[in-house]
Amino acid sequence: MANKAKRSSKTRTIIAVLAVILVAGSGFAAIKYSEAAREAEMVRNMEIHDMDLSSIHDGTYPGNYTYGGFTYAVEVTIRNYAIANIEITRNRTTKYAKMAEGVVQNVMTRGNTAADVVSGATTTSKALLKAIEQAIECNL
Fold first, then answer.
1. Interval 93-121: pLDDT, tens
2. What pTM did the predictor assign?
3. What DSSP character marks residue 94?
4. Does residue 8 lie within any of the structural domains?
5. For position 136, what pLDDT does the model report?
6. Is the pLDDT of residue 132 over 60?
7. Cβ neighbourhood burial of 26 (10 Å; 0-12, 13-18, 19+)
8. Among candidates 109, 39, 95, which has minimal Cα distance to 69?
9. Within-domain flag for 114
10. Would residue 14 be called left, alpha or beta, if left means φ above 0 and alpha means ψ between -120 and 50 degrees?
11. How far are the Cα atoms of 14, 48, 71, 112 from residue 126, in angstroms, in the given order?
């Protein structure tokens, strides 16, 4: 009988420890999710500036922007004070990241960074736009 009581006490202790770990893990996950959601909201709402290209010399300029622990990278080619080409040199491989690459065509069509984001891929579009903006801004 004493052996059975001892095993039962041990089982309760193990269950209690596992419950504490589960609750703590859930709390940690909720905090991390909340931080990621705040960062995504900040990126979605950040302003992208219309860049004045009239003082930028011809050349290819690198730019990057870090969001969600990932650095998006581009190379922007300026020719005759206009954006001649944009190459995405680092992007995620998700469906949404691939969709967001369409923002490059929006910038090329519009001729500046104040272009529309790709619907359904807003945060990655904004990250790529910010990388493009940074490439130009660093050379003003």
1. 999 999 999 999 999 999 888 889 999 99
2. 0.75
3. S
4. no
5. 94
6. yes
7. exposed
8. 39
9. yes
10. alpha
11. 48, 8, 13, 14
